[in-house]
C-alpha cells in the first residue's frame, strides 16, 4: 500500500502546498491520502473523506462516466484532463479537471485535480449570452421576414390588382370610345404596355421580397421557379436538383435556404460572368447541404475581401449553426456550399 511516508521530502512538500487537490486512492475506491487543499475544497473532515467511498462525493450525473474512466485507468489507460463534478459538504458543485495514473506495484491511483469551477461558470455565462444573441437574431430575422411577407402580399394582392383594374379601364376606353383619334389611341396603347410592364415588375418584386409559393408549395417549387425566372431574365442557364426530404427543414430554415440561394445567385449575376449555374440541395448523413456552382471567372478566396452578399449569407448561416464553405479558383468557377444540421 502507498502512504505519505513513502513520499520523498520534496514530493511531500509539494503534496501539501499545491493549491490543486492531490490524492491517493486504493483499488476499492477509498481515499488513502489527501492534501490540505482537497480537505478545504470538499469541506469534509479527513476522517469523513477516508471512511466514505469516493463515489459518494461525485455528482450523481457524473457517477457513471467517472466509473467507466476509472475502470479504464485501472487497466492501464492514463487519465488526462478528465472533467467531472463533486459535491461539497455544503452542497456546492465543484468542477474538477483530473490527471491520474495507476501504480500497479502499489495498487493505488495517484491523482491531481484542478478546480475549474470559475472557468466553467464563465463558460456558462458566455454560452447563455450566445444563446441570448442567437434568440435575438432569430427574433429580428423572423420579424423582418414577416414584414417582408406583408409588403410582398400588399404588392401582389393590392397594388398589382389596382394597376390591373386601371389597365382594364384603359383597354375598354381604347376599344369603345369612338372619339379617340389615332394619336390618342397610340398613347392609350402605350399606357397599356406600361401598365402591363408595371404589373409584371411588381409581381417579380413581390416574388423577390417574399414568394408566396414558399408558404403554398414549398422550397423546391420556389427555387425551381426562381431558377427558371433567372434564366429568362439574365441569360444564365440555371438548373436545380434536389435529393432531400423537405419536411426535415423547419419553415424558418426554408426561408433561410431560399434567401441564401437568392443571394448566391445574385452574386453569380453581378460578379461571375458565368454561362451556367446549378443549385443542388441534398442529404448527406445528418446534414442538409445547399450548394450553388457556376462556371464563371472565379476568384481567390484567400485574397478577396468578402462582399456584403457573402457577409449577409455568413450571418444567416451562423444563426442556425451551419457552415459556409467557399471553393473557387481564378478562371475555374465557384462552388459555395451551406451545410446545415438536420432539424
Layout of secondary structure:
Layout: H1 9-17, E1 21-26, E2 31-34, H2 36-42, H3 46-51, H4 63-74, E3 79-87, E4 93-103, E5 108-115, H5 117-176, H6 182-209, H7 212-216, H8 219-234, E6 237-243, H9 251-272, E7 276-284, E8 287-294, H10 308-319, E9 323-328, E10 334-341
Parallel strand pairs: 6-7
Antiparallel strand pairs: 1-2, 1-5, 3-4, 4-5, 7-8, 8-10, 9-10
Helix pairs in contact: 5-6, 8-9, 9-10
Average pLDDT metric:
85
Q: What's the CATH class of the largest domain, please?
A: Alpha Beta
Distance between the amino and carboxyl termini: 54 Å
Tell me the β content.
15-25%
Q: Provide the structure class.
A: alpha+beta
Low-confidence segments, ≥5 residues, pLDDT <50?
none
Question: What is the total domain count?
Answer: 3
Identify the strand order in the major beta sheet.
2-1-5-4-3
CATH superfamily membership of the largest domain: Histidine kinase-like ATPase, C-terminal domain
Shape: elongated
**What is the percent of helical residues?**
40-55%
Assign the CATH architecture of the largest domain.
Answer: 2-Layer Sandwich
Q: How would you characterize the largest beta sheet? A: 5 strands, antiparallel
Rg result: 34 Å
Number of separate strands? 10
- CATH topology of the largest domain: the name is Heat Shock Protein 90
Order of helices and strands: HEEHHHEEEHHHHEHEEHEE
Continuous helix count: 10
